[in-house]
């Protein structure tokens, strides 16, 4: 069974380094990734980047608190719908969107995929509903009227072991990562925000802002085990790492 994996960067954000690694100084400019998985039974996106309204006026869309700490480098043509069209994929053809979590830079493009079901951990959805539009959650990003498939814990999307949601709680209470088994490149772990940087994993250093530090460290240990057996860890926002990652339409795995 052939499963194809493609990577996109959908703009960049500049933010304080301590957000990514506690105690760091200065700022860092990071990519906003998304992935397309082409499976014989459907097309899946893992995370959808930023909302299209942040191209023109991000501060008005995200609000003062987010805008205070984030500078947006996001241009027309970098929205997930346009990135898909640029490789000949109709956004309407996406069947499932898997959100790692519901922060603004991971689900902002959900509404651009109108025919997709949204697959999310139940506890993340509950947390977002409780939180409202605060602490990185924006109601207009994730409450888009699409069908929501809430799952609990590990979830095999196509019941064949090739695309599997992995609960990786810590960054948020209901964060999930995605394991993708490809014929070409082997096993990939799409981290989302469970592991921002390569240095995070190597040094076992958690972010300055985190929901559950001990849970995040447990996830790091699990990622190390996966890495040791040959899985490629796709760090969520590592600018140096992402310079080495081929962009769609070049196939990653």
TrEMBL record:
Domain of life: Bacteria
Coiled coil: none
GO-annotated molecular function: hydrolase activity; metal ion binding
Domain Metallo-beta-lactamase: 31-237
Cofactor(s) the protein requires to work: Zn(2+)
Pfam family, one: Lactamase_B
Keyword terms of this UniProt record: Hydrolase, Metal-binding, Zinc
Keyword Metal-binding: yes
Alphabetized Gene3D superfamilies for the sequence: Ribonuclease Z/Hydroxyacylglutathione hydrolase-like
Similarity annotation: Belongs to the metallo-beta-lactamase superfamily.
PANTHER family given in the database record: 102 KBASES UNSTABLE REGION: FROM 1 TO 119443, QUORUM-QUENCHING LACTONASE YTNP-RELATED-RELATED
Name of the featured protein: Beta-lactamase domain-containing protein
Species annotation: Hyphomonas adhaerens MHS-3
Species lineage: Bacteria, Pseudomonadati, Pseudomonadota, Alphaproteobacteria, Hyphomonadales
């Amino acid at each position: 069974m052939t499963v194809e994996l493609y990577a996109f960067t959908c703009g960049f954000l500049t933010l304080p380094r301590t957000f990514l690694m506690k105690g760091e100084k200065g700022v860092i400019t990071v990519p906003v990734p998304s992935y397309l998985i082409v499976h014989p039974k459907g097309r899946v996106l893992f995370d959808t980047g930023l909302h299209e309204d942040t191209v023109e006026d991000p501060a008005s869309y995200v609000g003062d608190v987010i805008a205070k700490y984030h500078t947006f480098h996001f241009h027309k043509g970098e929205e997930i719908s346009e990135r898909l069209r640029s490789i000949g994929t109709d956004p309407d053809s996406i069947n499932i969107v898997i959100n790692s979590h519901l922060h603004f830079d991971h689900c902002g493009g959900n509404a651009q995929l109108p025919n997709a079901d949204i697959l999310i951990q139940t506890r993340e959805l509950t947390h977002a509903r409780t939180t409202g539009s605060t602490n990185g959650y924006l109601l207009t990003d994730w409450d888009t009227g699409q069908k929501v498939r809430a799952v609990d814990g590990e979830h095999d999307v196509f019941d064949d072991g090739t695309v599997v949601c992995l609960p990786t709680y810590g960054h948020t209470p209901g964060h999930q990562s995605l394991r993708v088994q490809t014929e070409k490149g082997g096993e990939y772990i799409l981290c989302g925000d469970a592991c921002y940087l390569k240095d995070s994993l190597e040094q076992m250093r958690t972010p300055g802002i985190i929901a559950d530090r001990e849970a995040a460290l447990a996830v790091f240990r699990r990622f190390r085990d996966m890495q040791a057996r040959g899985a490629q860890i796709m760090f969520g926002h590592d600018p140096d790492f992402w310079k080495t990652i081929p962009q769609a339409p070049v196939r990653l795995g």
